[in-house]
Write a structure and sequence with these properties.
Radius of gyration: 26 Å
Distance between the termini: 69 Å
CATH architecture of the largest domain: 3-Layer(aba) Sandwich
Shape: globular
Largest sheet: 6 strands, parallel
Structural class: alpha/beta
Number of strands: 15
Helix content: 40-55%
Length: 459
């Protein structure tokens, strides 16, 4: 864990390569290994996928596709064996679906008369087939099933595919299968037991049994990330996911008993930093605090929190905090805003009594958690917003996974005789000539008589 002043931040950030050490891991060796896998799947299809499964996964199933009845049975099994978890997943799914429906309502088609006789519009069309990839390493992320499948189904995608690595029994993790059954409801979906770069290649290229997807979304390790990067263009992707991160902005406690208030605020900050750091050593947990005393209180609270974590979480969180944990001390709001916008965190928490004045100036984040009650873990699981978010500073130019990733916004043009249509034709002809594209100009000129009475060529 490192504590620095806001005036030191720019130098620190440059030394970290501009992303605080949280760039997508990999490099030439990863890229070469992934390219080998892609080419093998391109030529070998199912056999190549199974061969890599035997090499990298916990098993290599005879049949890659999971029978639909087995997916439905997984959800029934969860309801019987752990009704509490099933109820929690149902609540999360309900919130995710409602939020996705609200997003879909904002994306509408239209047609408008731009000028007389010139009608321009857009149509919002779901992709025909979308694939959701869900990893199953140390932590099988069944919540990512809900976060990926529900927006795709809400968008109206015709066919939704789930891919997740096989366990020892040749099937994806049981909770991942159960989440797929819940997300699908009465809709037909397809589930494939395959993981890693070979799964991304199969989904992007298609094989004998695995259909080619138009869009592939979902998180994964560096090999999955590199495969998505390499295959972008052969399929659409959500974005390239790197290590997860959080930034917490805090202020001086405004409650009686400053020392006690500082400790209480520091404990909540530490809880959220530990929650992010326990992912793995590459995760980044950071905080912006208004004083050195507050920074030291957070540091002390982190030690207490770490001490009571289970061993596997403590080791990962300790490695993460030692490698890239950071507390920045700011003195003015403008300093904190500048640092936050530079980091462009995946998750930005505002532990502020009155956060609203800050919101307009904060521009770069994947999701914004407003007020100390808005824990990032709610976004991870049950509040309805999506947890698949831009990392490694990419929140500077994109947002998180949503309904829009499964939709195409395409444009339309309808023309009728009229002055506006005639003017547009004349302008197109003139611009085509100026660019030296004679056939373009001629195409416009050929329609001049259809523009209607009074049409004049462009000067």
């Amino acid at each position: 864990m490192r504590i620095i002043g806001a005036e030191e931040f720019d130098g620190y950030w440059r030394l970290q390569g501009g992303a605080g050490g949280s760039r997508v891991p990999g490099g030439d060796k990863t890229a070469a290994a992934v390219q080998e896998i892609i080419e093998a799947v391109r030529t070998g299809g199912d056999a190549a996928v199974k061969r890599f499964a035997a090499r990298f996964d916990k098993s290599s199933p005879e049949a890659l596709e999971v029978p639909p009845a087995r997916v439905r049975a997984a959800w029934d099994d969860l309801n019987r064996e752990d009704p509490g978890l099933a109820a929690a997943m149902e609540l999360a799914a309900r919130h995710i679906r409602r939020f996705a429906e609200l997003q879909r309502e904002q994306l509408a088609g239209f047609e408008a008369e731009i000028a007389e006789g010139l009608f321009a519009g857009q149509r919002v069309i779901p992709v025909e087939r979308a694939a959701i990839y869900v990893p199953a390493g140390r932590f099988p992320l069944f919540s990512s099933v809900l976060m990926g499948m529900i927006p795709a189904l809400t968008a109206g995608v015709d066919e939704v595919i789930l891919a997740s690595p096989p366990m020892e029994n040749g099937l994806p993790d049981k909770n991942i299968l159960a989440a797929a059954g819940l997300a699908a409801g009465t809709r037909a979906i397809r589930v494939f037991a395959m993981g890693g770069a070979q799964a991304i290649a199969a989904l992007a290229l298609g094989t004998e049994t695995i259909p080619r997807a138009g869009v592939i979304a979902g998180p994964g390790n560096k090999y999955v990330a590199e495969a998505k990067r390499a295959l972008f263009g052969e399929a659409g992707i959500d974005f390239i996911a790197g290590p997860t991160d959080v930034l917490v902005i805090a202020e001086k406690p405004a409650r009686p008993g400053e020392a006690a208030g500082r400790r209480a605020a520091a404990d909540i900050i530490a809880a959220d930093m530990c929650a992010q750091a326990e992912h793995d050593a590459d995760a980044r947990a950071r905080a912006l605090v208004p004083s050195r005393d507050m920074a030291e209180a957070v540091e002390a609270a982190l030690e207490k929190r770490l001490a009571v974590l289970p061993e596997y979480s403590r080791q990962a969180a300790r490695a993460s905090l030692d490698a890239g944990g950071l507390i920045v001390v700011y003195h003015r709001r403008e300093e904190a805003v500048r640092v936050a916008n530079t980091i462009a965190p995946e998750h930005l928490e505002l532990h502020l009594e009155n956060p609203d004045p800050w919101i307009g100036d904060l521009r770069n984040y994947g999701s914004l958690f407003i007020g100390p009650l808005a824990a990032e873990v709610l976004g991870d699981y049950s509040a309805g917003i999506n947890h698949t978010l831009p990392t490694s500073g990419s929140a500077r130019f994109t947002g998180g996974l949503s309904v829009r990733h499964f939709l195409k916004i395409v444009t339309t043009l309808r023309c009728l005789p009229g002055a506006g249509f005639g003017e547009a034709l004349g302008a197109a002809e003139r611009m085509g000539r100026a660019e030296g594209l004679a056939a373009h100009a001629a195409s416009a000129a050929a329609r001049q008589t259809a523009a209607g009475p009074g049409n004049r060529p462009w000067p």
